[in-house]
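B., you asked whether I could sanity-check this one before it goes into the benchmark set. Here's the sequence:
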Amino acid sequence: MNGSAAPTSAPHESTADGAAEPTYDGYLRLPTILTAQAPTTAESDRYTHAAEHFFIVAHQSCELWLKQALLDLNLAADAVRSRPRDLGLCLEQVRRVTHVLTMIAEHFTVLERLTVASFARFRGALGRASGAQSGQFRALYRALGLYGADSELFRGFLSALAERDLTVAEVYRRAPHSGLSYLLAEGLVDLSQAVRRCQLAHVEVVVRQIGARPGTGRTTGADFLARRLAVPFPELWEARTALHTPGGVDSVGVGVQYDR
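And here's what the prediction gave me:
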């Protein structure tokens, strides 16, 4: 048993003409989703059982949002690599991923509401299970070009700029007159910041919960996470920083044609 009963309605209901029509529970597969939480703590220990359930829900929700982020990143990469390149569609997907990663950061933050005492009671049941083993997080970092990976999304963005005879530095010097190229560059900056916030939120919650103790995955815990902090698309940050050097910003006339 998992504390609360899962929906038991049939996945389809018959309409007046006998046709099968999906139900809310069936369409969302709620009977499967809501029975996927299996705390190891006995239900008789209601406080710890609820805390472990809370821990599981936060991580499962995070993985579901990661699945969506990877789907949208793939669409964004396809949009900017295809011909004709669709920078507008790419930007739309990038913005959605940014919002999703902001929510994932909140999933880390919500774990601050897990008391240290309750976590300590069930942490041993995790064994070597660790967020460091998340295949979807690793896939996210690869898609963003972190830790030596090649980002197809960013490579496509650079190719799109090259077709417009632009460099990243020129996009920022001409901003906002570089139009969609500039909007997408800033969208990628927002995405980069969202990744950073996720990583920082993860470090903070680990420090809060276990201090300097090793992680369950045999890492050094918070120290391991802190050393892996990284920002995607550093070329964008370098171009933005260069604007603050003498002569870093060129004057742009009112009549400059906007890039589309």
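One thing to flag: The beta strands are 12-14, 20-22. Otherwise nothing jumped out at me.
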